[in-house]
Amino acid sequence: MTLTRLGTDKYNDIKLLFKDVFMNPPWNDDWSNDAQLNEYLLDLTGNRNSYPLGLYDGDKLIGISLGSIMHWCTGTEYYIYEFCISRERQGQGLGTQFLHMIEDYMRDMGLDHIFLQTENSVPAYRFYTKNGFSELEGHVSLVKKL
C-alpha cells in the first residue's frame, strides 16, 4: 500500500471511487447531479490549500482523503472533509492503515492536528473513535437552511 498526494490528473479516479462509496449504503447520498458533484469535488481538490491523498494498492486507487491544510492559532492541521475506502476493500483494516499513514505523513510535514467532522449515528463515528479521534469539547456544528 502506498500513500500519494493526488493531482488533478486523478480527478476521474477520485470521482468514481467517491460515487461508488457514498451513493451506496450506509450513506446513500444522491450525487446524481453530476454538475453538483463536479463542483463539490473541485471545492475539495482545487484550492490553494487542498491536500487530497490517495491510498493505492499497486496502480489501483482504493482510498481517498479529501482534505486541506488549515492554519490556526493552535497550529497547522489537516482538515479531512471526505475519507473513504473502496467498498470491496472495506472491513480489511485498510481504513485504519490509511489513517495511520496520513498521521505519519502530516506529522513529518510538521502539522499539529487532524480535524474532521462526522455524524455520531453512522459507522464512521465508531471507526474514528476506535482510531483515537475524540469529540472536541464545547464544539458544535450549526447549519441554517436558506
Explain this structure.
The chain is built from 4 helices and 5 strands. It has 146 residues and is of the alpha+beta class. The chain has a single domain (2-130), classed as Gcn5-related N-acetyltransferase (GNAT) (Aminopeptidase, 3-Layer(aba) Sandwich). Strands 1-2-3-4-5 form a 5-stranded mixed β-sheet. The longest helix is centred in the C-terminal third of the chain and has 15 residues, at 94-108. The protein is globular and about 35 Å long.
Q: Which structural class best describes the helix and strand composition?
A: alpha+beta
In which order are the strands of the major sheet placed?
Answer: 1-2-3-4-5
Query: How large a portion of the residues is in β-strands, by DSSP E?
Result: 25-35%
Characterize the largest beta sheet: strand count, sense, and whether it forms a barrel: 5 strands, mixed
- According to CATH, the homologous superfamily is Gcn5-related N-acetyltransferase (GNAT)
- Rounded mean pLDDT is 94
Briefly note the CATH topology name: Aminopeptidase
Sequence of secondary-structure elements: EHHEEEHEH
Calculate the terminal CA-CA distance, rounded to whole Å. 43 Å
**Amount of helix:** 25-40%
Based on the coordinates given, report the CATH architecture. 3-Layer(aba) Sandwich
Low-confidence stretches: none
The shape, in one word, is globular
Q: Can you identify the CATH class? A: Alpha Beta
The domain tally reads 1
**C-alpha-based Rg, rounded:** 15 Å
**How many helices?**
4
The number of distinct β-strands equals 5
